[in-house]
Design the sequence.
């Protein structure tokens, strides 16, 4: 990976961690713990850092969240734990994310396991997808003594942690080490196994007593504009910057990124850091509606990326097979649509061209196509689940992005899905087999 | 601007701050440097019997990332040759006639040895002599220091020898390693001492190394008790100081020390009866430069409070010192939380609920909320902050213990509010003379409480 995409924050030194841990008030029934979707006992793990009991601290994190190393890095802490810290009253919340990373780094450097796993159950569980939801579920099932196999279509485990989050937020080795931890808990990891392709649904059902689907979402959807075939997929752009053996993605001189979510920001960051002269982000609404977190927006502005709000692409300009620009039109905002956001309305005759030799789109992901293939019910295209995360098929559970229509904090939400699904699967199998 | 100068049993000093007899006052170089920085005086590190020192010498107690809330030491009295110390003392006094130069002394317990050292010190031109009856380690094993200070008879005898020989004022420095400092203080007064000083350091072991199991600090694999000093000992020193200040038989001035680090500490020592102040640990931590704010802060505070001179405030709070038996049992204070300032950390709640009187509730929308009662599906900043309950004190049940007040991390968020008493004023002393049976018999106490409407929570 390119140096300029190396992890943004350095690890805290021991002294930094101690000073910060000592600053924590140790709230009772702390709001940070409430705000964390996995409800890590944050004051507990922080005070253990303060007492030099760092392995105990890591254990406290693992007790609630087996993907603590990823969450420490990718969680939008301003919207979660740190946003709820009582010390926001003095504008200086505790650096919870970085303290969590301190404890996790310690655990991974010492090879510490979250618990001593041993198989005590006869029912086996299949997990489809080795992203945060799948690995979390697999680890939690291993905690309960189940033999678990995780089937992953890609060659590497970790899902978006490995492939889809810019390396300066989460380097690949962190995601792979986390998958390795789940394997060390006795979980079997079968990569290169794609459901509906070389892995048959019926076989899977026969082989296992319960299934957890953590299949994520698909590729970036179509814009439906002329020349779209020349537009690069943002997730592939990020993936090439992380795991490509050919030295990363080709970077244009003048790059336009379509979209204003966190993935779009990652794409713009990669373009800028790997050599683009100009990077322009194009979004049809404004910074009030954009889905990127405020801290991500602040970050990318400092990277020197330009924004064109109220701008909608209408065509890719191509000369001799080469992209030369993106034709756009101006937008005005109308009344709120179903999502609660104002409807973009094109302004007639407002077309203009943004010069570009590379265009990347990051406008969300396609809904999971798997549900229809295996005959489970969906809800607006996402897998429909009960509160216990059970699908329309008994014994088949689902979680992660595949069940979430739209949501912030998707990694940590996925981890929590995996944990809750493991609890539900355990209860289901216990009731079935006694 | 307030006049900070003092006259301490005839020893004049431009401000009340002296270096205590300790490592910072070990040489002419140091005392000269301290006087350049503005210190009013210095008590020279104890001279007397020959010694050899060890290393390591200083242990320390750190807490929650705060360095050196206390220091402990096994350093002995000055290990520099006596004649070098005497020559430098004379030089410093000659160069700084307006500053107080006091010399601490400790020799073996014979009249000849004491007479000899007193005369040598007087020959330097020093302003006064402090008798070190407090050193708790090393010297005490040789029958000096605390071995003297802990036995009032020795204290009196040696002070008498000294008073017979001395022409300049004699200050007796007391050890805190006693059940009460009053008997040794009385002994010094009986012997004619001109002044007292306290506290010397407290017996202590600073810690154990969890890797090697050695005592900290480690001296060749061993360690032992050393003298404890610094911010952590201040409350002990204030208590001992006030026990002398409230004693009618003690009319001589007192030099106070023990954890003085800021002008605020200094003001408290003065209010509880110290006339001069000695500082060591804070100087060892930050250097001589701290004298600037000690004087500036004290002066500004005195101006704000209308004090023009130090004597106006010396001992001003001693009238507030009381025995428990004379406290008004009807005085009523309750904790009140300022909800506008409260950050909802719930520290008061857990302290009250677990360890005090269970009179703080968590309230949301007027209803009682149990801690940790949110749904597992609830998360995010907005829900966590929005659903956060407000701690509230049930004032009728609050006994006024003040634990929550002490714990609250926000200044002025919890106040102890004085409420009108529910009963006529009465002290335990009055109660036991007027209604003795109540103080001796639980059944009588029960009837008394019922009659007076006293509910125990």
Sequence:
């Amino acid at each position: 990976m390119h140096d300029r995409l190396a992890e943004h924050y350095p690890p805290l030194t021991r002294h930094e961690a101690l000073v910060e841990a000592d600053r924590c008030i140790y709230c009772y029934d702390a709001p940070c713990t409430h705000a964390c979707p996995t409800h890590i006992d944050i004051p507990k793990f922080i005070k253990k850092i303060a007492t030099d009991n760092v392995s105990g601290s890591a254990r406290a994190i693992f007790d609630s969240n087996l993907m603590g190393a990823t969450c420490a890095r990718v969680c939008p802490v301003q919207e979660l734990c740190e946003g709820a810290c009582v010390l926001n009253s003095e504008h200086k919340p505790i650096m919870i994310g970085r303290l969590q990373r301190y404890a996790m780094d310690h655990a991974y450097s010492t090879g510490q396991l979250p618990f001593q796993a041993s198989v005590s159950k006869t029912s086996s569980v299949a997990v489809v997808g080795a992203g945060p939801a799948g690995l979390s579920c697999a680890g939690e099932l291993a905690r309960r003594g189940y033999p678990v196999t995780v089937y992953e279509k890609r060659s590497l485990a970790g899902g978006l942690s490995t492939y889809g989050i810019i390396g300066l937020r989460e380097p690949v080795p962190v995601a792979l080490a986390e998958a390795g931890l789940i394997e060390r808990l006795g979980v079997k990891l079968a990569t290169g196994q794609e459901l509906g392709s070389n892995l048959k649904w019926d076989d899977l059902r026969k082989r296992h007593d319960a299934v957890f689907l953590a299949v994520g979402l698909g590729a970036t959807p179509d814009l439906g504009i002329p020349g779209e075939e020349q537009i690069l997929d943002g997730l592939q752009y990020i993936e090439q910057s992380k795991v490509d053996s050919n030295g990363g993605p080709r970077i244009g001189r003048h790059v336009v990124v379509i979209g204003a979510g966190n993935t779009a920001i990652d794409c713009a960051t990669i373009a800028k850091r790997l050599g683009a002269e100009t990077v322009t982000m194009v979004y049809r609404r404004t910074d009030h509606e954009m889905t990127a977190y405020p801290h991500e927006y602040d970050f990318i502005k400092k990277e020197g990326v330009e924004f064109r709000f109220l701008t909608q692409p209408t065509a890719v300009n191509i000369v001799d097979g080469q992209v030369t620009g993106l034709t756009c039109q101006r937008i005005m905002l109308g009344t709120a649509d179903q999502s609660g956001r104002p409807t973009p309305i094109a302004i007639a005759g407002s077309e203009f061209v943004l010069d570009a030799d590379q265009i990347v789109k990051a406008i969300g992901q396609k809904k999971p196509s798997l549900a229809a293939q295996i005959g489970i019910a969906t809800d607006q295209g996402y897998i429909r689940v009960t509160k216990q995360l059970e699908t329309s098929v008994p014994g088949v559970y689902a979680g992660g992005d595949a069940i979430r229509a739209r949501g912030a904090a998707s990694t940590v939400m996925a981890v929590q899905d995996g944990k809750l699904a493991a609890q539900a699967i355990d209860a289901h199998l216990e009731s079935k087999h006694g | 601007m307030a006049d900070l100068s003092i006259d301490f049993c005839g020893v004049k000093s431009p401000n009340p701050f002296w270096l205590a007899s300790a490592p910072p006052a070990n040489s002419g170089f140091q005392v000269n440097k301290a006087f350049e920085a503005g210190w009013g005086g210095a008590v020279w590190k104890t001279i007397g019997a020959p010694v050899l020192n060890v290393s390591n010498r200083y242990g320390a107690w750190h807490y929650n990332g705060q360095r050196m809330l206390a220091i402990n030491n096994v350093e002995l009295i000055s290990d520099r040759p006596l004649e070098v110390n005497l020559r430098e003392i004379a030089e410093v006094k000659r160069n700084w006639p307006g500053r107080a130069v006091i010399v601490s002394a400790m020799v073996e317990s014979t009249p000849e040895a004491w007479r000899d050292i007193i005369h040598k010190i007087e020959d330097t031109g020093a302003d006064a002599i402090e008798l070190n009856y407090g050193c708790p380690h090393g010297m005490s094993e040789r029958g000096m220091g605390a071995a003297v200070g802990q036995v009032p008879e020795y204290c009196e005898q040696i002070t008498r020898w000294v008073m017979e020989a001395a022409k300049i004022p004699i200050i007796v420095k007391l050890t805190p390693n006693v059940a009460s400092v009053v008997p040794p203080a009385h002994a010094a007064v009986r012997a004619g001492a001109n002044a007292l000083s306290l506290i010397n350091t407290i017996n202590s072991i600073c810690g154990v190394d969890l890797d090697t199991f050695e005592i900290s600090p480690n001296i060749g694999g061993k360690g032992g008790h050393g003298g404890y000093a610094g911010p952590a000992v201040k409350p002990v020193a204030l208590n001992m100081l006030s026990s002398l200040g409230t004693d009618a038989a003690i009319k001589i001035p007192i030099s106070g020390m023990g954890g003085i680090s800021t002008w605020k500490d200094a003001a408290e020592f003065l209010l509880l009866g110290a006339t001069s102040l000695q500082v060591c640990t804070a100087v060892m931590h930050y250097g001589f430069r701290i004298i600037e704010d000690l004087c500036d802060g004290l002066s500004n505070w005195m101006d704000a409070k209308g004090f023009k001179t130090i004597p106006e405030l010396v001992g001003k709070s001693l009238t507030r010192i009381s025995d428990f038996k004379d406290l008004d049992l009807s005085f009523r204070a309750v904790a009140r939380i300022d909800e506008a300032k409260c950050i909802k950390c719930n520290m008061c709640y857990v302290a009250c609920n677990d360890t005090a009187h269970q009179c703080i509730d968590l309230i949301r929308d007027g209803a009682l909320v149990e801690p940790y009662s949110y749904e597992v599906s609830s998360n995010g900043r907005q829900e966590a902050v929005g659903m956060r309950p407000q701690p509230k004190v049930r004032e009728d049940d609050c006994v006024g213990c003040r634990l929550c007040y002490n714990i609250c991390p926000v200044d002025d968020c919890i106040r102890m509010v004085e409420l009108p008493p529910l009963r006529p004023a009465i002290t335990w002393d009055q109660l036991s003379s007027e209604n003795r049976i109540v103080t001796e018999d639980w059944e009588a106490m029960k009837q008394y409480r019922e009659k007076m409407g006293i509910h125990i929570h």
About this structure: The two ends of chain B are 51 Å apart (CA to CA). DSSP finds 16 helices and 21 strands in chain B. The CA atoms of residues 71 and 229 of chain B lie 5 Å apart.
